[in-house]
Each structure stands twice: as structure tokens, then as C-alpha cells.
Amino acid sequence: MANFKKTIQYIRQVFNEPEAFIPLHAPVFSGNEKKYLNECIDTTFVSSVGKFVDQFETKIAIYTGSTKAVACVNGTNALHLALVLSGVEQNHEVITQPLTFIATANAISYCGAKPVFVDVDKETMGLSPDALRAFLNEHCEIINNNCINKTTGNTIKACVPMHTFGHPCRIDEIKTICEQFHIALIEDAAESLGSYYKSKHTGTFAPIGILSFNGNKTITTGGGGMLLFNDEALATRAKHLSTQAKTSHPWAFLHDEIGYNYRMPNINAAIGLAQLEKLNEIIKAKRKLAHKYAAFFTDNKIDYFVEPKDAQSNYWLNCLVLKNKEERDSFLEETNKKGVMTRPVWELINRLPMFQNCMCGDLSNTEWLADRVVNIPSSSLL
Ligand SMILES: *Cc1c(COP(=O)(O)O)cnc(C)c1O
């Protein structure tokens, strides 16, 4: 069995932390966070109205190259709204990957829809266009421009690929397949702010993409999310739904449909705006760390996960691919015992009790990765 003493020493050296606990990912507040927060309090604009929300949305749209961005309370409800806007309803099915954070599958469930799990690529850890095509060809037929699952009789309404740990999946091929099969595409780019596929920002290939600004993500707003659009009218509709579907009127409270209270508060946007000013520096630091890791692990014959072909990754969480489950478990045991935080990937969603009866394609790559991949400390060293 491999001895990971050298790896632990190296991680401690890189983070310049000889003894203290090293977390997986810590946020850094080195800019205007306090200044903007004070401004919220001084002006009393702390809640659902305020200039920071608008500014944060505008700057995220510019950064990602989206036409419009709409801020939400968190990434999970941004996903929920994206599914609602894509027409996902009761008894629909939504294809996603089983190797993702639970939020992806939960948001599908909020619509009364069921997830269908399709395999990932070993090279990206994100939804595999080959597996998607194979699944659709085998199990689905197109009737009146609807994609019908022949086994269940239900409509496959949408597909939600995820850019795992910040590494872009083959999103352009997935987009072509979804268009061919009349399936709405939503990009879960919660982990991939600052990641590009073929020089285009992740989350902007599909009609709707989402980001998360939870505390462990590349930049944080405390809690927060964002919807990305290339269609102005759809963005306007998203904002309407996220603000209790209130119609604009000088004094009356008029709501024209059932909406949601999903609007990001101004204090969260204030933090986000300050964080965004540092994003380029943060990504640069994260990529520098990734290069150091790559060199060290290559020298030590440990398989370090490198950004996929045609992609530029934010390296949100760095990954090792260990030899097998036994080696993975001894790595997790040894590192965590020594105060260096490491984690396996999420328990596969198709194995969780509430999603156990969902339909699955062949999941060999997913299962192979789940036994071997670990995340190692990845905070940006500014
Ligand atoms: C973080 C994350 C989300 C959203 O999470 P929130 O905590 O609600 O912001 C969604 N999907 C994935 C894959 C994530 O990692």
C-alpha cells in the first residue's frame, strides 16, 4: 500500500502551514467586502432592493459573456427556476449525471419531475455526449416534437450537465444532441465560474446556465446563485418569477402568477461585487496551484486530474485519481488524520434512497471514478 507521507508534506509546504488544519477550500476576503457591506448598512439598503444586486448582475453578465444575468438566493433555487423556465413540470423526466452535488437532483424533484442518470466521461467527469446519444437512441422516440422515454412513457423535457469540480464537459456536443432530440438544455455551472470551453465561458452554451456563490465556491456571496441568459426576454421572465411575480405599479401590490421569493439580497451582492473584483487574481492563483500539483504528482507517479482537451479550467477543487477504492480509503484516512482535509466524491445520486428507483443508463465511468477520485486542498493562495 502506498505511503502518502510525502504528499502530506508537500501540501503543507505549498500552503505554508506546517501544523494547522488545511481545509479543502476557504474563501478569501481581501478587497472591498467590508466597504460595500458598510455602505449597505449606512444606506439601509440591505435587502431585496439595492444597487449592488444590479451591479453584480451586470458585471457577471460581462464577465461570462452572457446577454443578461439574474441573481438568486442560492444556486439550488437558480437551478429550480431554470427548470421552471424550461417548462419542466410534474411527471417529466430530466437527464443529468449521477456524479454531481445533490442540488442538481433536488431542483429537478421540486418540479415534480424525475431525474434520469446518464454516464460521465472519464476525461471530463461531466456528462458524456456519447452516453447521452446512446441512451436516447436506445430508449427514446420523438413524437410531435417531444422526446418520449419508451420505457416509462414520460416526456424527457430537459438535460442538466454539470462542469464537475470546475472542469468543462463537452458541452457543444451535448447541445447538438439536445437540439436534435427536442430536449431543453440547462448548464449547471455552479462550480465553474472562470472556466472556459473552446474559449467560451461555461454556463453560456445553453439557453440557461446557473452559477453558485456558496461559501466553498470559487467566489462567494455568503449564499447566492445566478442565472445566465443569452435571451433578454427569458431573463425578464426569470426576474419576474424570482420576485414573487409582482407587476410594476406605483403603489399597488399586484401579482399576476405564482412566483418565488428567490431574489438575492443587496448585502450578499455587495460581497459578491467585491469578490468579483478579485476573480481574475483568484483564478490565476488557482491555476498556479494546479500547475504545482501537476508537477509534484507527476514526479511521484500519482495520477493528477488535468483540465480536459479544449478546456481552460478554474481548478475549483483539485483531484487525484487513485489506483482503486482501497488506496483511496487509505489516502483519505491518512490525510484527514494528519489535518489535511481531503474528500471522496459525492455518494452517487442514483444510490441515495430517494433516487434509487430512477432510470439509469450504463454508468461504468461514473462508478470507476467514484471509487478513485479524491479532492485535495484547493484554496487560492493570494
Ligand atoms: C454548489 C452547487 C450547486 C448550488 O448550490 P447552492 O449551495 O444552493 O448555491 C448546484 N450544483 C452543483 C453541482 C454545486 O456544486
- Count of separate structural domains: 2
The biggest beta sheet reads:
7 strands, mixed
Number of strands: 16
CATH classification, class level of the largest domain = Alpha Beta
- Given the C-alpha coordinates, what overall shape results? globular
- CATH homologous superfamily annotation of the largest domain: Type I PLP-dependent aspartate aminotransferase-like (Major domain)
CATH architecture tag of the largest domain: 3-Layer(aba) Sandwich
**What is the element string, with H for helices and E for strands?**
HHHEHEHEHEEEHEEEEEHHHEEEHEHE
Strand content: 15-25%
Q: Tell me the CATH topology of the largest domain.
A: Aspartate Aminotransferase, domain 2
Arithmetic mean pLDDT: 97
Question: What is the distance, rounded to the nearest whole angstrom, between the alpha carbons of the first and last residues?
Answer: 35 Å
Unreliable parts: none
Q: Strand order of the main beta sheet, please?
A: 1-11-10-7-6-2-3
Percent in helix: 25-40%
Catalogue the ligands.
pyridoxal-5'-phosphate
Question: How would you describe the overall organization of this protein?
Answer:
The protein has helices spanning 5-14, 33-43, 51-64, 75-85, 102-110, 129-139, 171-180, 232-242, 266-276, 279-299, 325-337, 364-372; strands at 68-72, 93-96, 114-117, 140-143, 146-149, 156-160, 184-188, 196-197, 200-201, 208-212, 225-229, 303-304, 311-312, 318-321, 343-344, 373-376. The protein is α/β, with parallel strands linked by helices and 382 residues long. It has 2 domains: 5-26 and 279-350 and 359-376, Aspartate Aminotransferase, domain 1, CATH 3.90.1150; 33-278, 3-Layer(aba) Sandwich (Aspartate Aminotransferase, domain 2), CATH 3.40.640.10. The strands form 4 sheets. Strands 1-11-10-7-6-2-3 form a 7-stranded mixed beta sheet, sandwiched between helices. A hairpin with a 2-residue loop joins β4 and β5 (146-149). The model has no long low-confidence stretch (mean pLDDT 97).
